[in-house]
Here is the input.
Amino acid sequence: MKKITVAKGDGIGPEIMDATLEILFAAGAKIEIEEIEVGEKVYLSGNASGIAPESWESIRRNKVFLKSPITTPQGGGYKSLNVSTRKFLGLYANIRPCKSLYPYVDTKHPIMDVVIVRENEEDLYAGIEHQQTDEVVQCLKLISRPGCEKIIRYAFEYAKQQNRKKVTCFTKDNIMKQTDGLFHEVFDEIAKEYPEIENEHWIIDIGAAKMADTPEAFDVIVMPNLYGDVLSDIAAQITGSVGLAGSANIGEECAMFEAIHGSAPRRAGQDIANPSGLLQGSIMMLNHIGQNDIAEKIHNAWLKTMEDGIHTYDIYKENISKEKVGTKAFTKAIIKNLGHNPTILKAVNFSHSKAMQLPKYQRRPAAKKVLEGLDLFIHWPGCDPNELAEKIKKMEFAGIHLSMITNRGIKVWPNGFKETFCTDHWRCRFKPDERVIMTKEHIIQLLQNAILEDIDTIKTENLYSFDGKPAFSLGQGQ
Ligand code: NAD
Here is the structure.
């Protein structure tokens, strides 16, 4: 018997959780439920994180969390519980299988069988945002080597375990050479350790277009957090409905299982929601806790129900479906089919679907890190970069000189274009002359000079090289 933590969530959450648990128990899942409250009610009671401390204890004790979608209230101050759960518990891998059920569920893509492996802890979802000037806000995109290594290794190990043939990587490293560049670089490194699995890299925009158009060209696709969030909804939707896909969030110690969709508040309380997404999440959970036979039994009964044409409204199609049912009747139909396999759709065999033990991340020896310059970001409401350069040049001292000014990344000085639109947010790059070795003292002096010249510094960014390789972007047009 395995104790698991369960949260029924908001909107359609309670209905789809009741349906899922009814099926799990009817199938003989050896689980004991510890229920916690998360989401809207908790937020509105004044808890900005949407979860009480004792609920965290339950999840950390049981290490397995089955969660219905929740509603994050609109407006400032509320932190997404989904994002914090993934990060607090180190659930670095988000696995989202999206498979067509043709000809029983209407889809333009009859032979689609794609698994999205989404990095789950970093990228723009670090949630580090600041307003810096009247006109400009920023969001930090953080990509780490451990983050990349862990998710990419997970994707290859998953492909190996599931006997899949290819892992594709999606990034935008033609633009984000440092962040997405690192993800791509680590992908190439790790792919070499799995010569039996084909590997390829696509730029995300054309890759996403190809996936939406020809998903049969893909097998496992691994990508950073934001892209994975967007693409997994698309992938699920084009199999027939976003209500069909489940998601496993896997960490070294804990795991959380859910549907990929949200709480669909407009559909709540009407007995119409499709519980398949959460049911798929719970099937992944059963595999994770070693109850593969029960997982298999439920999945096959679900396939049989799909095949029987007993469909909820979101996948109901007149000439394909036989009966349009609500959540409860759909649940009963699955329970009735427990022990039966589909006849046309391929029955699943989960005997190999075990929780994976991946090697721990090994930190590499530190590289030789040299300070090569400084980017000083300033708030200046003027619009002529030459006028700004005159002002900033007054800060120069002891071989530290202004080498470039950019606005939203594009070089505007020296030799900028008068056509370039400028905001009030400027980056002034300082570099040392060849004979000068730059130190942190130079940075302090530059900041002091900025105060003396009445320049509104909003942030600095150190420019480094690692092992002799410059590790910062050039200005666009530089
Ligand atoms: P949503 O996924 O909740 O719903 C979008 C539409 O998809 C619905 O109107 C409905 O037509 C359909 N749909 C979704 N799930 C369905 C199901 N099981 N059966 C039938 N139809 C289904 O997306 P949204 O409307 O953008 O978000 C609603 C709320 O959910 C927001 O508060 C959002 O923050 C939250 N949300 C939560 C999670 C989560 O808890 N993991 C994820 C995404 C969104």
In short: Residues 12, 16, 69-72, 82, 242-243, 258, 261-267, 273-274, 277, 314 surround nicotinamide-adenine-dinucleotide (CB under 6 Å). Residues 1-91+243-354 form a domain with the Isopropylmalate Dehydrogenase fold (CATH 3.40.718.10).
